[in-house]
What we know:
mainly alpha
Amino acid sequence: DVPIDNNASERAIRGFCIGKKNWEMIDTVNGANSSAIIYSIAETAKANNLKPFDYFEYLLTEIPKHVDDKNTDFLAELLPWSDMLPENIRKPQKASGK
Length: 98
């Protein structure tokens, strides 16, 4: 069951497309690549019911703790769909009306 359109993905990138002319870092290839990476992480966080700002804050505090690690297995615990993420970065569940 694949939808015939991709409205969900088009809605997700709409803000990015509207704002890209105002963002100065996108005037280079590296700036565009960096912007795409950051935006992809933010949208993946939203898709996994996380608060993007809190998720970025968590990543930016946890990743430096492992800067000297040779093993990168800790990254699996930081992915947006990981069960190991703290509850405070998750969006509250909406109560059902039943």
